[in-house]
């Protein structure tokens, strides 16, 4: 508990005392303006008391009064004034707050403003005079003298600060002037360190109470300031801060403005702040529900644009911290009556509209809860991976993914990152946001880029009933059509849009299994072929159990309310089923052969192939791969039943079912069992018996990441096609070799041995040729007399490969070359090699410096070590000049290294 300074007052008493004080001194009490600034496109929200008087200060509007006082509701979140990141982590930052202010429009000026402020603080609120300090602008001698004269404050408690802290301007041009802040010293026990002091730290000891702005200049486009004919006054004091001082508490959240809200949050969550959990989630929620309550009261609704987007960010940040407290159901609406009870007397509109406000908050909260849990898991995975890589910056692209897919505002991601010692690359995030905006401007999309936004468009539509486990056709009704950001009532022929049906046999992409494809057809009489209304090209699950079908309309088009027949492409479905069941068989076989550690870490099930990622440290041997493949095929030939059971999660786990990667499980789960072999939780489609898989072949096994391997395989018709192709290839080869299938392998071995023998003969001949070439090059070598007659060999060898050039260089050094410089332009890019013998390296000759001289000429760069270096370039036509340049550098180095030596 902090030290009580001054007269104990409730926040409502402070507010009314302030307004009455100034009303008694000729000020008109003006009601708070809306949080949405009227006629001011430069501001998202009202963020200060002077906003509603802006035109008065600019001389564009005249009022019937020249003195005013207000208790103004303010929001600082988004734009230039943004305290959102700090809320909850300090005791004095808020998204919503009240600013108490008094204003003079060409009436009184500095002297009366200082006199009013000092009198109210010391005589009405009874703050101890010796605890009050003031700051003034560095050049404002007048203000300092007035503080000494009126308040008797000594120079030791008057601090002069620069333009950043003590000069206020309405904008780049317009009214401006110095300001003076009144600060209270909350005590030595809150001292932050040796440098603790006004202007040097930002600790809780020095609390700014009141800012007095002396609007006395007008600044033009050139930055010139001229005195205003009628100087004005604009002041502001935060109600939350002064309440904490007078109520003797350490921070704003312990005042009567927040305590009732925090107590309600405690009741809902069942946990106690500071005891069961940290206090900051309570602070965040209590602040944010006040902001959201007042914004909704002023007509702002959560959305993805402008003010609505900022409100959504605030609301969803609160919801996320609710999850931290263990709150799983919508709760923000339950807090609205508490805010109304606390603030309703001063702002009766929130008391009158509290039912509506609660619905607005609850609606967006419910939408967000649909994706929050999944999004938090994804965020935690991404952040864990970032930390495992030893990085401290979370990719902006990852932050955008969380926003785009799960509706995570950047503030929420930043909070989660901060809790894990990470920061977010906000510039990269903003770049991704702008790219998305550009795409939206370029064309209207019908894909699934923003599932949450799609869900908002169909929030009144019930969940889609999936009947595709047992049926590939179903009569259905069109419930909604979505194109871009709009709901349509019908699709014209050729249109592409998203269609929501009441019932569907189409499986949506999930759990690694790809979507079904097919058609929507007009109903037909028995025995007739249905006319196609549209082709289904994509299917995806959305929040709330809705399934979206991407459809291209044909013939007559499609209308909402129309009855159609949904027909799945049966051949594709059968391929998907075979490959999905094959992944279950493969998973079990891997665990049996390699051990229980071989857990699935990813999969792709397509019509004609499967990809299966699993945890394992090394490559599988040929024997292991054969064992796995044989085990799968044995189960296929056994033709055992594939059983499906729906049960609760606890019972499924008790029976030994294992979870598949990437699946989200509710209380009710689907267990797929290959009788007597494997049992997994799975929502995908499968064959009825393993024999339907046909056959199984492993195509490849490779590494994906450290400790993760990947098998690619085919089953069913795809495996049959592969077998037939391989058989035809073998037949063609045996025919060309003139042998039968039984002699195929031995013939290949014989040919390989012959090839190896011939290659050895060729290598020996080339070696002899290199020796002959080396003898010729040594005879024609450049001799450096100033370096003890040491030799430099320079030669262009376009026919040699880099490794052959290195072999030649070794031979040349053996034959006495001190420096070897070889070049080739046989490929698209020129290549330069420099080699230096051991003695010359010891004397200081450096191959790297030599090769870089040549590389410069070729428009390239090089590197290596002092005994051997190489370089590439962009200009092969400059190779001869590069060799000459390298030769000059080699001569220079040899002469310098051996000057005066034998």
TrEMBL record:
Task: Recall the GO molecular function terms of this protein's record.
Answer: alanine-tRNA ligase activity; aminoacyl-tRNA deacylase activity; ATP binding; catalytic activity, acting on a protein; transferase activity; tRNA binding; zinc ion binding
| Domain called Alanyl-transfer RNA synthetases family profile: residue spans | 9-725
Enzymatic reactions: tRNA(Ala) + L-alanine + ATP = L-alanyl-tRNA(Ala) + AMP + diphosphate
Record text on cofactor binding: Binds 1 zinc ion per subunit.
Which residues bind Zn(2+) per the record? 580, 584, 682, 686
Task: Name the coiled-coil region(s).
Answer: 748-775
Tell me the Pfam families matching this sequence.
Answer: DHHA1, tRNA-synt_2c, tRNA_SAD
Native source species:
Candidatus Fermentithermobacillus carboniphilus
Keyword annotations for this protein?
Answer: Aminoacyl-tRNA synthetase, ATP-binding, Coiled coil, Cytoplasm, Ligase, Metal-binding, Nucleotide-binding, Protein biosynthesis, RNA-binding, tRNA-binding, Zinc
Question: Domain notes, please?
Answer: Consists of three domains; the N-terminal catalytic domain, the editing domain and the C-terminal C-Ala domain. The editing domain removes incorrectly charged amino acids, while the C-Ala domain, along with tRNA(Ala), serves as a bridge to cooperatively bring together the editing and aminoacylation centers thus stimulating deacylation of misacylated tRNAs.
Protein's name in the database: Alanine--tRNA ligase
| Chain positions covered by the region annotation Disordered | 859-878
Question: Which purpose does this protein serve, as stated in its record?
Answer: Catalyzes the attachment of alanine to tRNA(Ala) in a two-step reaction: alanine is first activated by ATP to form Ala-AMP and then transferred to the acceptor end of tRNA(Ala). Also edits incorrectly charged Ser-tRNA(Ala) and Gly-tRNA(Ala) via its editing domain.
Q: Top EC class per UniProt?
A: ligase
């Amino acid at each position: 508990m902090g030290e009580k300074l001054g007269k104990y007052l409730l926040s409502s008493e402070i507010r009314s005392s302030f307004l009455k004080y100034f009303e008694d001194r000729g000020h008109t009490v003006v009601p708070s303006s809306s949080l949405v600034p009227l006629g001011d496109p430069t501001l998202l929200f009202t963020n200060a008391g002077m906003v509603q008087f802006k035109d008065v200060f600019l001389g564009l509007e005249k009022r019937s009064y020249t003195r005013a006082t207000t208790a103004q509701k303010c929001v600082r979140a988004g734009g230039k004034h943004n305290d959102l990141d700090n809320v909850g982590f300090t005791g004095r930052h808020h998204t919503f707050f009240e600013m108490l202010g008094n204003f003079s429009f060409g009436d009184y000026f500095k002297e009366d403003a200082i006199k009013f402020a000092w009198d109210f603080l010391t005589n009405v609120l009874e703050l101890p005079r010796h605890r009050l300090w003031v700051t003034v602008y560095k050049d404002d001698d007048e203000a300092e003298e007035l503080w000494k004269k009126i308040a008797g404050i000594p120079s030791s408690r008057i601090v002069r600060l620069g333009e950043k802290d003590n000069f206020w301007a309405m904008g780049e041009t317009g009214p401006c002037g110095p300001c003076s802040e009144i600060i209270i010293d909350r005590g030595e026990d809150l001292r932050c360190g040796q440098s603790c002091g006004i202007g040097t730290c930002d600790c809780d000891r020095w609390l700014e109470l009141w800012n007095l702005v002396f609007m006395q200049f007008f600044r033009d486009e050139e930055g010139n300031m001229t005195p205003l004919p009628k100087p004005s006054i604009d002041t502001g004091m935060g109600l939350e801060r002064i309440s904490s001082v007078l109520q003797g508490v350490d921070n704003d959240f312990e005042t009567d403005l927040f305590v009732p809200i925090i107590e309600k949050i405690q009741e809902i969550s069942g946990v106690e702040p500071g005891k069961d959990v940290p206090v900051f989630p309570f602070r965040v929620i209590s602040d944010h529900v006040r902001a959201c309550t007042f914004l909704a009261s002023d007509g702002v609704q959560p959305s993805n644009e402008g003010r609505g987007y900022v409100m959504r960010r605030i609301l969803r940040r609160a919801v996320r911290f609710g999850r931290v407290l263990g709150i799983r159901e919508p709760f923000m609406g339950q807090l609205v009556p508490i805010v109304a009870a606390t603030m309703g007397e001063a702002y009766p509109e929130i008391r009158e509209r509290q039912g509506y406000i609660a619905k607005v908050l609850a609606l967006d909260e419910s939408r967000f809860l649909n994706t929050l849990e999944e999004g938090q898991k994804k965020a935690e995975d991404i952040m864990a991976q970032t930390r495992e890589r030893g990085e401290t910056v979370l990719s902006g692209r990852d932050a955008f993914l969380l926003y785009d897919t799960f509706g995570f505002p950047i503030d929420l991601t930043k909070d989660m990152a901060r809790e894990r010692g990470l920061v977010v690359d906000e510039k990269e995030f903003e770049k991704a946001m702008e790219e998305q905006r550009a795409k939206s401007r370029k064309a209207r999309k019908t894909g699934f880029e923003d599932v949450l936004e799609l869900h908002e468009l169909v929030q009144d539509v019930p969940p889609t009933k999936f009947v595709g486990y047992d049926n590939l056709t179903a009569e259905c009704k069109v419930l909604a059509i979505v194109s871009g950001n709009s709901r349509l009532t019908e699709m014209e022929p050729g249109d592409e849009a998203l269609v929501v049906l009441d019932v569907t046999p189409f499986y949506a992409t999930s759990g690694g299994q790809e979507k079904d494809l097919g058609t929507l057809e007009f109903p037909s009489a028995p025995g007739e072929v249905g006319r196609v209304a549209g082709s289904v090209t994509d299917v995806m699950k959305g929040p709330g159990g809705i399934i979206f079908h991407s459809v291209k309309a044909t013939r007559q088009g499609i209308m909402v309310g129309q009855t159609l027949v949904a027909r799945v492409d049966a051949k594709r479905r059968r391929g998907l089923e075979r490959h999905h069941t094959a992944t279950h068989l493969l998973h079990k076989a891997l665990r049996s052969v390699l051990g229980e550690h071989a857990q699935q870490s990813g999969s792709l099930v397509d019509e004609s192939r499967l990809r299966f990622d699993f945890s394992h440290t090394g490559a599988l041997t040929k024997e292991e791969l054969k064992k796995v493949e044989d085990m799968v095929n044995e189960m296929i030939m056994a033709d055992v039943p594939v059983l499906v059971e729906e049960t609760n999660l606890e019972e499924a786990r008790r029976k030994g079912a294992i979870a598949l990667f990437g699946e989200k499980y509710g209380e009710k789960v689907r267990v797929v069992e290959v009788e007597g072999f494997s049992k997994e939780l799975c929502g995908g489609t499968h064959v009825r018996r393993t024999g339907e898989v046909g056959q199984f072949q492993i195509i490849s096994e490779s590494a994906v990441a450290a400790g993760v391997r990947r098998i690619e395989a085919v089953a069913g018709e795809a495996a049959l096609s592969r077998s037939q192709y391989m058989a035809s290839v073998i037949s063609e080869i045996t025919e060309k070799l003139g042998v039968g299938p039984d002699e195929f392998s031995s013939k290949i071995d014989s040919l390989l041995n012959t090839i190896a023998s011939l290659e050895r003969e060729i290598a020996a001949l080339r070696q002899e040729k290199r020796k002959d070439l080396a003898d010729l090059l040594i005879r024609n070598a450049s001799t450096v007399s100033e370096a003890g007659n040491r030799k430099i060999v320079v030669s262009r060898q376009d026919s040699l490969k880099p490794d052959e050039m290195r072999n030649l260089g070794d031979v040349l050094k053996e034959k006495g070359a001190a420096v070897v410089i070889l070049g080739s332009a046989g490929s698209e890019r020129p290549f330069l090699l420099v080699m230096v013998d051991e003695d010359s390296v010891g004397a200081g000759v450096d191959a790297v410096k030599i090769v870089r001289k040549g590389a410069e000429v070729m428009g390239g760069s090089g590197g290596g070590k002092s005994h051997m270096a190489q370089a590439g370039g962009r200009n092969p036509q400059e190779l001869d000049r590069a060799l000459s340049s390298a030769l000059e550098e080699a001569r220079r180095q040899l002469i310098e290294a051996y000057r005066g030596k034998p």
